[in-house]
Amino acid sequence: MAPGVHLHDGVEIEFASGERIVCDGVSSGVSTAEVTTAVTHAHGDHLVDNSNASEIVASELTAALASVRQSECEPETTTHPAVELIPAGHIVGSRAVLLTDPETDRRYLYTGDCRLSDRLYLDGFDPVDADVLILETTYGDPRYRFPSPTKTHQQICDWLNETMDDVVILFGYALGRAQKLQKLVESTERSRVFITDAIGELNSVIESHREITFNSYRYHEDTTLQAGDAVVLPMQTTRLGWIESLVDETDAITAGFSGWAVDDSFIYQRGVDEGFVLSDHCDYDELTELVTAVDPERVYTQHGFTETFATELAREYGYRTQALKSNQSTLGDF
Fold first, then answer.
1. What does pTM read for this prediction?
2. 247: which of 128, 140, 189, 210 is 20 to 30 A away, CA to CA?
3. For the segment 252-287, what is each residue's pLDDT rounded down to a tens digit?
4. What kind of architecture, by CATH, is found in domain 4-143+281-333?
């Protein structure tokens, strides 16, 4: 392959020497010993198992969370002289990857999932200069513009206080959203918040690496919920039978939390009563702000609205852009 950026299972950056570094995936066609693997954060779609990479360039917290999230994923962290990790503002432990080709000094910035705004216990991503930007564009459509985190947090807390006479069940990703929801509940008049064992295990890892404490209780079958209680559950559990039974038994109000809550259809698609725009990703405006701050020669978009955002950047700002497509073999193919 020619030097540059390639998309296979993960995003590969190939230096002029032929050395490859793969981000959030495994390399194609070469042994793992020949490739350095970088992992930006511990969400399942970004992790690699030990058979593909026993050592990863990642934060210590990401490696610790990975070992909890996937039993076959217990990596050791390593470093690489051409790789710098930068806090990405997505979830705890998340890092963007800055790669510098030692022969050409060309700088590649792979953001992974990121967010510019500070939120609760998380500092936002501070973009750095790079020649090439590889950007996740989950919300890279102009329709997806979010309220400020401060405004959203206040809306959520107001709603939690207004519904004090009810049990509320809050759905968010087990890693990231669930922890923020616990901290938001703690800031309201509600005295008890319950979580699943899976969320509790993640809490314990985070507490051991960061100065954060989650004052939550484990929910079990014999738990008796009462007015004013909150239960935080993973988003994918909204339609499970025992959840539906719990809602019926307690007459609970359900709420989902996501950037997709911008869409009016969100509450119907997720089967919840309320929806709040709480996201750990950049919205459209933050993505644009990120690009102009980095001011690269070339932008590659990955995941989500790749074509839409690439087109808008080229038209509005004159950047050379291209949406990444799988298994393109040379830079010229992009």
1. 0.92
2. 189
3. 999 999 999 999 999 999 999 999 999 999 999 999
4. 4-Layer Sandwich (3.60)
